[in-house]
Amino acid sequence: MSYASQSDVQTPAENPVTGTTVIGSSDAALQTESNGVRNDWSQAEIRALFDLPFNDLLFRAQAVHRHHFDANRVQKSRLLSIKTGGCPEDCKYCPQSAHFETGVDAEKLMNVDAVMAQAREAKDGGASRFCMGAAWRSPKDRDMGAIIDMVQGVKALGMETCMTLGMLSGAQAARLAEAGLDYYNHNIDTSEEFYGEIITTRTYQDRLDTLEHVRQSGMNVCCGGIVGMGESRDHRAGMLMTLATMPKHPESVPINMLVQVEGTPLTGTDQLDILEFIRTIAVARILMPNSFVRLSAGREAMTDEAQALCFLAGANSIFCGEKLLTTGNPEVDQDDALFDRLGIEPYEVEEPYEAEAGE
Ligand code: SF4
Fold first, then answer.
1. Does a structural domain hold residue 150?
2. Which of 180, 219, 241, 280 is the most exposed place for a label (fewest CB within 10 A)?
3. CB under 6 Å to ligand 1: residues?
């Protein structure tokens, strides 16, 4: 791991980042970075951000964050697994894959009433967005009726809706958009170069195709990835480059720290330094200034101090509730206490997405 010294980032000639984004330099240059939303980031620029001294990187990320968002507000989403286990895909990090023995049993799609009960509870607990995940390669047409009832029911509660159901055809995306689904989550997981180490049952291009269908349908895109899977810093930079060079940045960018689950092939992977995870959040914030950057899986193992640094780096969304899809998450009371200690307020339930500048 190498860190650029301050002198490396002072002049445009020395560092590819500095053409538009000088740091440790004039306020005017910082302002330029804070205002700009770019879709033409190069791998070298992104790598140079990763390589900055930690304090410089966090300062830049925080400056960008403050320009585009209220720095003391964090959006809370609640995630429910509406169809657990038995997935035909072979994502090496996932306990729900049928390829691995993890003790997660295959279940049927939950019924609509049960989902609605969970959504009401999530709203009462302060969540403004309700995310529903199904362990499918892609949804079957026979399930779409129930899926649409769930979307419409949760929306009627005044919550934002998000679903992650695997790959979508253009027609399925259009149907979900018509039903009023606000966000569709489909992660790229990692860089294109590292992708083949993690998943073999569908390609990177398959993922991009689904994202394109979602974008074309008019729904908001939720797309991020996972770090700590044994990838390199260049792979992390590559993953963020894919996201930051999309014609329109995903509105929501979940950054997950791998939760190692016994039985999955990634169990035993070297633990990623938490400071590198925080760097990844900070770089995501700088690259995609208008997006909600979500501190997602892996929070349960993080200290309060590490999470505070993630917020300082520009994370402004979390999953709340003691369970994610199948893995643990901090207790709601614990999150409330942390928000109190940090003076962070959650975004209100009906509050629309609103960025101050840029796109
Ligand atoms: S991450 Fe999603 S697609 Fe991959 S195995 Fe798990 S449930 Fe299936």
1. yes
2. 180
3. 87, 89, 91, 94, 96-97, 135, 166
